[in-house]
Amino acid sequence: HCVRALDRASTTGAHGLPLMGAGDWNDGMNRVGVHGKGESVWLAWLLVATLRRFAVHAERRGDSSVSTRFRARADAYAAAVEQSAWDGAWYRRAYFDDGSPLGTATDDECQIDAIAQSWAVLSGAANPTRAREAMHSVNERLILDDARLVLLLTPPFDKSPRDPGYIKGYLPGVRENGAQYTHAALWTASAMVELGNGDRAAEIMSMLNPLSHARSRDDAERYKVEPYVVPADVYAASGHEGRGGWTWYTGSASWSYRVSLEGVLGFEKRGARLRLDPCIPAAWPGFAIDYRFGTSTYAIDVQNPDGVSRGVAWVTVDGHAAQDGLVNLVDDGLRHTVIVVLGAGERNGLAEDELEDSLGRSEAV
């Protein structure tokens, strides 16, 4: 079923990118490729990540035919993006049915879209120099520190003669049309984690925390929605900056939990093994986690004596060095002490790919 779904998704347009159809992640862009020729840059990155991870799964099942096919497709998409979608300081978002680009510096509207940049990083497939430059552009153009907003795109759609879809029916700065769309904003934070920028990742997560929008009566009256649930969107429209949109229904809540726990705090559990690879603000002296595994408790103390954002120097479990940097979880009813010290140097002598293999994960994304 998964193979057939991925085969079905792996379409190709004139630029070698997957077809966008009546919308990709952003269903509001439902007319970019409605005639069957428009292409999605973001979807190319997503397919690269998915195809490469599934290829490893297929290989482990002895299905070399699928593995080889999926890797070749992923490589072709990655090459196509680099060939046709780099705009000079960021990646374009898509191509319309008529072949004109969306998300370029020459556009009057939607010059830059966040998810084409964050997934350049999250896919692990982009040119590293370009990926960093793209996220620098996100930082400069889409993250509004004073307003505490992380925008999806800018400038919003308004008067352009081109018709991207019903996204243009929203007022500029509302929902997907140039407001903060929290799901995408969390991908921006996750990309900062992947780049090792713990300061920026934590700042973004603080901006996205609904409590930070209700610290005073004035803040609460501007925000208007519940400060104890993650909102799907926060307005950037003139006169309504900082007003919360839809609440309670969004899958962004689970992404928020995952980026906070697995991304910033670096807590990643796979089976009965635990990896701790934080990406935190350099000024943090450390943090602590109490984790229950069955009847056991693991008291985790992360220390940052050198003031770094990322890099595990060594790990001990109950006073003994974890030679591979991983904690083997045991359900024995006892309390175990785990000390993680951040600092320069290799992570207990293991390279990144070896750590991934030790965790039994398919591939790093």
General description of the model:
This protein is α+β, with helices and mostly antiparallel strands. Helices cover 34% and strands 17% of the residues. The C terminus is likely disordered.
| Distance between the ends | 23 Å
Computed structural class: alpha+beta
Poorly predicted parts? 346-365
Strand content: 15-25%
Largest sheet: 5 strands, mixed
Q: Summed up, what is this model?
A:
This protein is α+β, with helices and mostly antiparallel strands.
Key terms:
10 helices, 17 strands, globular, single chain, five-stranded mixed sheet, three-stranded antiparallel sheet, disordered C terminus, 365 residues, alpha+beta, 34% helix
Protein topology:
Blueprint: H1 2-9, E1 39-40, H2 41-60, H3 64-84, E2 94-95, E3 101-102, E4 112-113, H4 114-122, H5 128-141, E5 143-144, E6 149-150, E7 153-154, E8 180-181, H6 182-194, H7 198-208, H8 217-223, E9 233-234, H9 252-264, E10 267-270, E11 273-276, E12 286-293, E13 296-303, E14 312-317, E15 320-321, E16 326-328, E17 335-342, H10 352-359
Parallel strand pairs: 13-17
Antiparallel strand pairs: 1-2, 2-3, 4-7, 5-6, 8-9, 10-11, 11-16, 12-13, 14-15, 14-17
Helix pairs in contact: 2-3, 2-4, 4-5, 4-6, 6-7, 6-9, 7-9
